[in-house]
Amino acid sequence: MTSGASIADLLVLEPAERGHGHEWLMHLAASARRRRLGARLVFAVHPGLAERLRRELPQYPDHQPIVLPITPREVELCNHRRLAVSGLARWWVMRRLLKVSGIRRGLFLELDHLTLPLALGLPVGSGRSVSGILFRPSVHYDREPGLRLAERLRDWRKDLLYRLMLRRGAVHRVHTLDDAFPAFAQGRYRSGDKVVELPDPVFPLVDATDADRELASRAPADRVVLVLFGVLTARKGILALLQALAQVDSPASERLAVFVAGRVDPAIRETVHAACAALATARPSLWFHLEDRHLGSGEIAGLVDRSDAVLAPYQRFVGSSGVLMWAAGRGRPVIAQDYGLVGRLVREHGLGTTVDTTDAAALAGAISAVATHGAAGIAKPERLSGFAVRRTPEAFAAGILDPLERRSEAPRTLENRHPEPVTE
After folding, report:
1. β-strand 171-176 against 256-261: which pairing, if any?
2. Fewer CB atoms < 10 Å away: N or C end of the chain?
């Protein structure tokens, strides 16, 4: 792409404060700045995320995204626990902002919420179109062993909604982090060619400072170190991990140091702390530390660098995993679930070992094996680096920005100020 090329204006909606959104928006902003794009990029986001982006994005007025906080009421509805409510709310917010801004293209960072309103054909406005990142396609894993009735019903519903959504003219493109889904979609759905792979970006290497390494340095030097990090929900596997650690035999527990780091979901906080207390009683020889708070990228880097392996004991999770990308980027193998995209990537690319993480005894066995024999045998460094090399932040940003490129109009710029709330 030549310097000064322009892309169609793009409005990106992300109403969640935590998760992949922050990282992905930073990648888009950095890529647009490097390319010296003259078009408007507008990030309509959770107010907390807006504050963080304004603090962290360098000030380049000619190539700076406009960061627009959505309202607290919009945040509440867009993050409603019922998918139908959150989807309709996100559709409505996108439609409203496209209308008042004059921008003709919108991007949802998590399209999974939008399958119902888009399948129903709810309009986004004349001449406007939307795209999005489909984070959890699962219909192509219908031959997974042990698939449950609830999962089959979930995938039947998804299959119907995908089929209808892809037919809609307002749906321009469906990006997916699952590299097996585009071929499946193209063979199954009319307009399945709208589905394209988007590389899940490996987080750029971060230079951890001495302060960042302080947490990691607490582990005893003579132990095999395992790390679980991120937002600690039941789906993330923290409760399953605590149950498994209580079943690790005493010789293995004497060799282990385990960090669990990240903000614990308030819904399970009491249960987690009770399980930690029970673990200390059941396995006093195990070194275990829970750091119940949000960690900066430098601290995560320090923990992963100190580890021998990274834990990804998701509980039947079908989507992609930032944890997997962090581990591969820093050359660490994983102990992961054997299900869905995560399980397939680990097996196909030799990124570690997979196990039925819903079975505490099976997970304990995998952990004991690493404690006894070390983590070197479950993944080869060259496989980890090979997996990470094409999943760069620039490749991720290019997958979104390149299709929007146009050269027919002179670039436009807007001053990147803190805009007034948008109202109709």
Report:
1. unpaired
2. C
Instruction: Give 29-60 pLDDT, tens digit per residue.
Output: 988 888 776 567 899 999 999 999 998 887 66
* CA 381 – CA 365 distance, rounded (Å): 23
Would you give the DSSP letter of residue 199?
P
Rounded-to-integer distance, Cα 42 and Cα 39, Å:
10
Q: How many CA atoms lie within 13 A of 200 on its CB side?
A: 22
The 8-class DSSP code of residue 215 comes to: T
Looking at the DSSP bridge assignments, the partners of residue 131 are 107, 173
Beta-bridge partner residues of 225? 257
Name the helix (H) or strand (E) containing 184: helix 181-188
Lowest-pLDDT choice from 116-125, 363-372, 403-412? 403-412
The DSSP code sequence of 77-146 is HHT-SSHHHHHHHHHHHHHHHHHHH---EEEES-GGGGHHHHHTT----TT-EEEEEE----GGGTT-TT
**Any residues with CB less than 8 A from the CB of 210 and at least 6 apart, and which?**
none
3-state secondary structure of 345: helix
Local structure of residue 304 (DSSP, 8 states): H
d(CA 91, CA 88): 5
DSSP H or E run through 13 = strand 10-14
Q: Report yes or no: 320 and 177 within 8 Å, Cβ to Cβ.
A: yes
Strands, E, within 170-254: which ranges? 171-176, 195-197, 224-229
